[in-house]
Amino acid sequence: MTVNDQKEIVRLGQASEWLVRLRNEPDSEEQLTAWLHWRDQDPENVEAFRRIQALWGQFDKAYPTGSEINALLGASGRRPREAGSRGSALDGLLRGFLSGRRFRWALLTMCVFVIGSAAFWEWGINEKAVSVAAPAGTAHRTVTLPDGSLVDLGPKTTVTVDFRRGQRSLQLYPGEAYFKVRSDRKRPFVVRAGTLNVTAVGTAFDVKHELDRVTVTVQDGIVAVEAEGPERTQTSNASWRVTSGYQLVYFTANAAATLSSVDATATIAWREGRLEYLNAPLASVVADINRYSDRPIVFLDSSVAELTFTGTVFTDSIDGWLQSLPAALPVRVVREPRGVSLAAVSNASMQ
Amino acid sequence: MPQFDNSEESAGRPASANRNEAVSELFRANNRALISFLLTHLSNEGEAREVAQESYIKLLQLDRPEAVSFLRAYLFRIAANLAIDRIRRRDRKDRIERLDFFDEPPLAPSAEDEATSQQDLALVRQAIAELKPSYQTAFAMNKFLDRSITDVAAAMDLTPRMVRVYVTRAVFYCRLRLDGCSQDAAYKAMMELAS
Description:
The complex is a heterodimer. By secondary structure, chain A is α+β, with helices and mostly antiparallel strands. Chain A has helices spanning about 5-25, 30-40, 45-60, 65-75, 90-100, 265, 280-290, 300-305, 320-330; strands spanning about 115, 120-125, 130-135, 140-145, 150-155, 155-160, 170, 175-180, 190-195, 195-200, 205-210, 215-220, 220-225, 240-245, 245-250, 255-260, 275-280, 295-300, 310-315, 330-335, 340-345.
């Protein structure tokens, strides 16, 4: 449509004014009445307002990323390109906005409602994403996402959420989280853990992201797991389908995965405060426990880390587990001022 | 909360019946305006509809039957508060159930369907880039950072009135450029916009 009609141009100008006014002063009754009156005057006004609103929505699509928005924010020109150069008050303010992570209580495009006072929100315009983090040593936090999906966060775990523009994209940083996904065929639910993308349609699954591996356990439904190849190569990415009751462990170092049948309820028992293991390396047991405790457990002997452990650790009774450990494994527990060391039991100290 | 008390119902409460009648009428007359109004705060039409429904339900729960003219202002007030609440705290769990009479066909064509080809989006970006840098910054802070006119004014060392004009002009200019106006014509129209 071309605007050659002067009346139409005036109308669109009025519509622009109304949009900006209503948006910024929603409480003014006088203004509202005037707007309704303007609207009632002519169906063309209704249409003009609708078209301005459509454009307002298109802006979000035109500027999908934080960096594009940053360019506009910095358009007034005084934002220095190099660190250390001078900057106006506005620059400082904007930079604070852009580089810092800020609490944002009012979010226009999406919100995650966090249950529990210790869990918190962060918002950075760079990612235009929300991150939800659970602090150390606490019980897990349940978070309801905008689409109704649930995320249970393990301790010391951060997940960032990006639900803009019809996508459901999440990033899991080292830690563990359980996802119960609300089905939506049009919007795949993708959890990224390192170089691994875990895609679900409507399902419940757990992802544990450790330094050397990512473990995906499916409780319900099917998820697709795709490992990203090294950048700038054309090789097709490795991918797997994991069905309920199966667990995929992806090893980052050699980009290989193992798939095995597991008791998924045991894997997700951490949500009830139990860590359950079947022939697990002590190293990964301790890595889990360390997320629940502020007193880290370290290995004095690497041979201890390679021992296998079968049993349950109650996250509210880590001390009890440490006390019982020497009975189960050839391990000596050494209490240090800041933590606990696990040493191999030497022949001499054995009774 | 509405009470479902049979004895009371059978005794007949014309006031309540009148009110329901008035609210239904109000709905018919204002639903489009209300959703349009809500869309200035909520970016998605489905959500705007939900808030509209909630507002009507709140209105139905009012005790005093009043003139429709009063109800209309009240309805928009409720809706604005609900929309703001929602932006602050989106807990989707307590969704209200759909009421039959709210099942109206969508406003056609919806804002979502409106031309969003890559070419259009490139045009939008180009139009914004043609604006004065201070317009771009004021617009982006208000639109994308969701900061109030007053906030933007303080940050940019401008008066709130100037900021409102900048943002309005940016939107207007962009619309005209998308609609095929030349750079000069759009610029002229933009500068003529009453400030």
